[in-house]
Each structure stands twice: as C-alpha cells, then as structure tokens.
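As practice, study what follows.
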Amino acid sequence: MIRITLIEIFLLGLPVAIFLGYRAFLIHVRNHDPEGFSPVPYHKLFVAGGVLVLIGFVFFVLSREKITDKKYVPAHIQNGELIPGGFVDHEPEKEQGKPE
C-alpha cells in the first residue's frame, strides 16, 4: 500500500516540481534580462504532465501483482498468536453431499 501511495505522490509531484523549477528559472531570467524570454509555455507543461501521468499509469498496471485467482484471508488470532492476513491460493471446494 505504501508503494502505491509513493507512486501516486511521485506522479503528482513530478509535474509540479518541473513547473516550480521552470517558474524559478523564469524569475531568474526575468530579473537579469526582462525582454529576453517568453513566460507562456503552459500548454507544454500540461502535455508533459499528461504524458508523465500516462506513463505512470502504464507502469502501475504492468507492475501490479495479479491476485484474481487468490482468496484474501484477514488477520486472525490462532492459538494465542496473531496470524497476519494476506492472499492465499483457493482451496479446492468439497463436493456437497459426499462424505470424506
């Protein structure tokens, strides 16, 4: 869960960091040469952020563990010990009506 949160923070933070770095660069250039630079590339930043988000989504989808064939067992106490929860393989179901 922490990995997913960190990936989402990274995907949100990277475009913001790029934008803030660019704005700091603009302020620095504007102070030294007020007529030498155009401060309106917002469409490029928007596209760059969108591309980074799409790359992140593709990475997230491809790196996920497939758990569709597993069953979740919640954490429980057994013989006085805490057994952590997690995903386990399905147990073969017993046929009803037939004794073992």
In short: The chain has two helices and four strands. The first strand starts at residue 70 and ends at 73. The chain has one domain: 1-92. Helices lie at 2-32, 42-63.
